[in-house]
Amino acid sequence: MTDVLSITFIILILAEKYIIYHIGFQLSFMVTFALLLSKNWLMNSNSLFMQTLQISFVSQMMIIPLQFSYFSMLQPLSILLNVFVVPYFSLFAIPLMYVLLPLSVLPKTLLKIIDTMFVNVHYAVINFVRWVDGIADYPFMISSVSLIFTILYFIIFFAFMDQLIRQKLQQSFMIGIFLPILICVVALRPYLSPIGTVTMLDIGQGDAFVIELPYRKGVIMIDAGARFNFDDMQATNSNAEQIIKPFLYSRGIKKIDALILTHEDIDHVGSVAYMAGDLEIENIIVSDYYQLTDENIRLLRAYDIRIKRVKRDDSIVIQEQKFHVIAPNNNYHSGNENSLVLYTKMGGKSWLFTGDIGKAQEKEIVKTYPNLTADVLKVAHHGSSTSSDREFLQQLNPHIGLISAGANNMYGHPTSEVLDALTAEGINILRTDINGAVQYRFKGSRGIFYTHLP
């Protein structure tokens, strides 16, 4: 049987070499291989229920490293749920598909009866799974696993299964306890690490910054932008589902201590609604002039998220990390001009996050704070010509300018005018449309910027 599996594996790769990267291909062969190796243990059971449970256990344990690598999470109850799901697909759904094919020559009325029966049963099963997911959704989150973890995991798992098949239960147990220990060690890694990070995510035309404090003392986000449909100007879930949540999960992050929203534009806040259901957001922080809609209020109440308003010269403190509110000082009756401007120090550098403020607000800031400087500047309004005033840049005197903009965006951001102004002041430019995501990793007062191409 292993020869048949191997030949099938080789034929499929010869037919389509890139299929090896397909997650369904990987999961299918890994599970099948594990079940073949475990067939003697599975056949020893006289109970159909126990045999199904054993199959579910082996299947789940075999793919854990792959699950963590792709999804950064594990649903512990999936082993029990598979006792129901696997037989349904193996004994009913898939065989029925094969039966229905030759029956397609039957009269349409009869086929419709069979089809209706199948659809009703199938939806009942899917709704049951969704119901279980709704009341027992407690995933085990872990940051991305390394090759060393994967090798160690499979060595321990194969040794555990070998002793189990040989019915050496005591030896099997002694080996098996190292599996949860290994997983827990990896899960605890961020809480033991002195490394902190500031990541400018590449979400296209929008802003999303993730700040991870050392020893995982806190996770802070500044903005969570979304793409939108031009037909109805409604935010889509693509950034949340494809970029923001996968990144947070890959870092083992399930909880955000503070989500700071600079202003109301979709490219800064549109993903919040799609994040709230899957992530625990403890606080949302906005300015005194941020306009909350009825939909915003319903969202906050539904997920028990605290809202906090701040004004100029207030301090936002998250686990000893202090952000000083620089602006807005007045209500300019415009989302961009009312953007929250935040100043903080991290990793031996001073940072200024500017939202989408314009030149008038920049001039007002340097006039009010004549001694304000910053090592790292989040260039305002994605590099629009409405921002980045020369006087503002000269006083701040930053070494790094961060620009979050979509590749070939319709607005022409960042503009040549802004790029020339930044270059003239000797500011090193890092931009998502060229460099992909940008991450500053620091330890103590020293750090390095890294770029990650899409």
TrEMBL record:
Entry keyword set: Cell membrane, Membrane, Transmembrane, Transmembrane helix
InterPro entries named in the record: ComA-like_MBL (IPR035681), ComEC_N (IPR004477), Competence_ComEC/Rec2 (IPR004797), Competence_DNA_uptake (IPR052159), Metallo-B-lactamas (IPR001279), RibonucZ/Hydroxyglut_hydro (IPR036866)
GO BP term, example: establishment of competence for transformation
Superkingdom classification of source: Bacteria
Domain Metallo-beta-lactamase per the UniProt entry, residue ranges: 205-407
Membrane topology: Multi-pass membrane protein
Subcellular location: Cell membrane
Transmembrane segments: 18-37, 49-73, 79-101, 138-161, 173-192
One GO cellular component term noted in the UniProt record for this chain: plasma membrane
Entry-linked CDD domains: ComA-like_MBL-fold (cd07731)
One Pfam family it belongs to: Lactamase_B
Protein name: DNA internalization-related competence protein ComEC/Rec2
